[in-house]
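Database export, one record per block. Field names are fixed; values are copied verbatim from the stored entry.
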Amino acid sequence: MEKCRFHEVKVSAPSKVILFGEHAVVYGMTAVAASLDLRTRMRIKPHKSRILVNFPDVGLKESWSPEQLKTLFQHKPNTEILDVNYVYLDLIHNFLKTESSDLRMASVICFLYLYSLIMDEVGIVPMEILVESEIPLGAGLGSSAALSVCLSAGLIGVLHQVQGYEKSIFEYTSSSIQKEVCGFAFLSEKILHGTPSGIDNSISTYGGMCRFEKGNLEPVRLERNLRILLINTNTFRNTKDLVERVGEKRVKYPDIVKPILESIHAISEQFLTSIQEYNQDLNEKKFYKILEDLMDTNQSLLTGLGVSHPTLDDVCRTLKKLGIVGKLTGAGGGGFALAVLPPSISGKTVLVAKDLLETKGYTCYQADIGVNGYVIEVVK
């Protein structure tokens, strides 16, 4: 392959959903999260002369000449330390003539930062990047992490081709390559969110399900995919305000709130125990009955904390009339609810549920959880 040429790269990465542990996780207790088969997809193709990014989901298209980027990239930080260099980040903001608060440009900022680090060894390689996503933006499902993982894996895929790696990202899913993808994606998440937990980019990189406690991620073996129905209440919520509200209640009424949080933690742990039993020989019907009980109880506890919302309550009531158990996911106060769909439930019942919910102004998504992390291929 001639220098600085490569074949088209296709990469996708999943979003994430929190199943159990909302708000308790803030206080060092257990949460359970899983990859969600709503994916961000990216294509990277060679370009004759420019570096072009196209994000149609947010109506954004930008391009630069290698000469323009060469001047900017002279100031890039040392690649040995994967942490945000805020001086360099400010230079990127100035280069793009955008404020740090401009969320629409955030994806481009992350692209330029990662491009300058990952492609450092081979210089500026002209390319065209197209990104499309099935993940609702800003809804707490890890849309930014999925983009960050796609950028990281996709650019590494280009680098491996240009350098002629025999053990490239396309043929080898080694832990070292996954760790590299996850590391650059985490850097991108820091640029976007300041101090992220790392749970979103880890789930999007590795896929599957994980136990998360005190900043530590532990993979959870899941023998069978679980199907869920996700319901967007289309009600705006402020995660920071909701977390602060629970914190204030915890200080004001410790004897009431702490036991609620501990019960939420216990639900997460019971779910993990049930998953282990289900992987072995637990009867499917019994497993889903336990799961429904845990979800129902968890929703009641979250309501007791004051983080539910009339729309979330309405979703749960509507589902319950059809024999489906739902709960909020994420911070609450609006946002998303989820319901696990047992294999025994009929397709007709699911359609009826979706019709009823969408008639009320909600948006429904049906997806598998515990799916693969990033998937990458070279198109020849």
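Remark 1: DSSP finds eleven helices and twelve strands in the chain.
Remark 2: The chain has two domains: 8-221+371-379, 226-369.
End of record.
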